[in-house]
Amino acid sequence: GGLSVVSQSGALGASLLLFAGDHPVPMGFSKFCHVGNGSDVNILEVLEYYAEDDSTKVVGMYLEGVSDGRAFMDVAQKVSRRKPLLVLKVGRSEQASAAAFSHTGSLAGSDRVYDGVFEQIGAIRVASMDDLLCAAKAFSMQKLPPGNRICVLTEAGGPGTVAADEIATSREGRLAEFSPKTVERLKGILPPMAMVGQPDGYVDMSAAAMEEQHSAALKEVLRDDGVDAVIVISVPPTFLSPVQVAKGLLEAKEGSEKPVVVCLMAGDWVKDARVLLESGGIPTFDMPEQAARAVLAMVKQARFQSKLAENEPRGCVAL
């Protein structure tokens, strides 16, 4: 695998390794390092190594605090310029800051300052261990989106609304913008009770959508220039074959570099379908909020990379 983790907590870091094994296709790790209080090897040395390591594609970090802020910014930015840097930073409250200090002697520092630093250096702050693993999985399987317009393609209204809420309330992304032609074609593809573009970028295919309609709808939205990424959500009714749905989604994704993630919400009923999708390079998730946050992390990384490209020095012509 391409995920490398550095952690100031051995227990939390080891738990990440175990949780990663619970995914339909177990997530692989490249490197893992627990630095504790950094009395020997410190977190900056490990980050410096990960930045240069070709087998490390994504870096995850559990952080309680740093002793040298400027050095941390310099090294962390070296990482984020080359690969996604996901940071689980604790210490949002005074109580958690005190707990961090008693654990490793790290001063957690001002949470607002850390937020500003992460934004400046291109690090992606995650709220939980689960968010870290979900984002890492998406990064390891899919290319970055060309923009921040995300389509929600769902057969279940409630879960679709959860995903739409995550997107609409974020600073990173927004719902996609369908062309009139896409809306017209989707209405021709899907059952009569399907709701298309209400709101724009959102499709409720309805529970009546069959396997081939899932595939055709995904292929259609991926063709739209107003769509940069797609979240597919399915709670397959018993008359649908989850494996056939998965095969159709894989076929629809072929030829498109836009990221697609899938949320299948039916436990063991969809396990084989999830294995099939992940083996084919499409990440899957248990819950719609997981899928949405993973895509939003990709949008944030793409925005940072775009800014870097804009600020690259241009060649000069001597006069």
Write the layout of secondary structure elements.
Blueprint: E1 3-7, H1 10-20, E2 29-34, H2 43-52, E3 58-63, H3 69-80, E4 85-89, H4 94-104, H5 111-121, E5 124-125, H6 129-141, E6 149-154, H7 157-168, E7 174-175, H8 180-189, E8 195-196, E9 202-204, H9 211-223, E10 229-234, H10 242-253, E11 260-264, H11 271-279, E12 284-285, H12 288-311
Parallel strand pairs: 1-2, 1-3, 3-4, 4-5, 6-7, 6-9, 6-10, 10-11, 11-12
Antiparallel strand pairs: 8-9
Helix pairs in contact: 2-3, 6-12, 7-12, 8-9, 9-10, 10-11
Task: Characterize the structure shown.
With 319 residues, this protein is an alpha/beta fold. The chain has two domains: 3-141, Rossmann fold (3-Layer(aba) Sandwich); 149-305, Rossmann fold (3-Layer(aba) Sandwich). It has twelve helices and twelve strands. It has helices at residues 10-20, 43-52, 69-80, 94-104, 111-121, 129-141, 157-168, 180-189, 211-223, 242-253, 271-279, 288-311, and strands at residues 3-7, 29-34, 58-63, 85-89, 124-125, 149-154, 174-175, 195-196, 202-204, 229-234, 260-264, 284-285.
